[in-house]
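Subject: Sanity check before I submit

Could someone independently write out the structure tokens for this chain? I want to compare against mine line by line before I put it in a report. The sequence has 365 residues.
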Amino acid sequence: MKYYPEDNRTWIEIDKSTAANNLMVIRSFTGNTPIYATVKSNAYGHGLSLFSKLMEENGVDGFCVDTVPEGVYLRDEGITKPILVLGYSLPEEWVEAKEKNITISISSLSSLEKICSMDNSPEFHLKVDTGMRRQGIFPEEAEKAASIINSSGKSLKGLFTHFSSAKDINYPAFSDRQLELFERTAASLAEKGITGFIKHVSATGGALISDKYHLDMVRVGIGLYGYYPSKELEIQLGDIGLKPVMRWKTAISEIKDAKKGDYVGYDLTEKILADTRIAVIPVGYWHGLPRALSGIAELLVNGKKCKILGRISMDMTIIDVGNSNAKAGDEVLIMDDASVLARIIGGSYYEIMTRTNPAIKRILV
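---
Independent answer below. Compare away.
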């Protein structure tokens, strides 16, 4: 899964000791329950192969990806632990999933019929829609699902659902309702002779909120990368030791003087109010630096906060370095905590991280 040639003018550092610590923190909540690292979407921007290998070295029990090609890529990169595809997979991908020992998810009766009619099918988990209204069969379709499975002689590897709001300890009602519907579905399958499958419902939120949501495994994403799934949960749990793993950096490509009254960047959106020095950095919105940060965010150069001037371009950004002794080649810290940038634009740190361009070089530090 080589997206583009690597852009070495900017890089993302992945702190291996912090990542290992985050996994240890999660395990302190989940005990012996197996943890599957959710590494879909280029491991939330952290590098699919690099981060997965790091997690495998630190004893994670398996991996969750979004697509069969992501799973195949991990197998080709040497990942040996179980891999579960959470998203929709095309029937033509199922043969390779079988060959690579990748488990897929089935989320509709029509797909269930297709895989059950396949001679050499991959193992599969069946997803149940308990309130998210995305993928999954409805609980009342369990009897029909059992009939399809029984008539084919196939076995069900796992059953799962996804909580829509397991992010607040004080408001568990909807999650508890989803769990109840899920257990009812599992019981309906068991009544029809479908047994031996593992059950899982929790992402990071459920894993941290209560052990009643742990079941047979948990699927942990955002927590491994050092973030809480919500501000509410962060406040309720306090500092449990999760720390951001990713640091995004670049280097100044050139420095120049700017005079009072000069305009910076496209469309004359910012006027220089006093003589200063400005720096060009070779990073823009194509790399994943949100254009919404134009003229308001600050980047760090030599320990000094340097404001972004004018509009962020596709491949370049201008910063005011008048308060620093910056020179060409100096390192610029773009981000070491995605939540800071997210707060500035009223967005999501999930989105900030996952939209960092896969072409940016990731390195372990």
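---
OP: Matches mine. For the report I'm noting this point. The longest strand covers residues 7-14.
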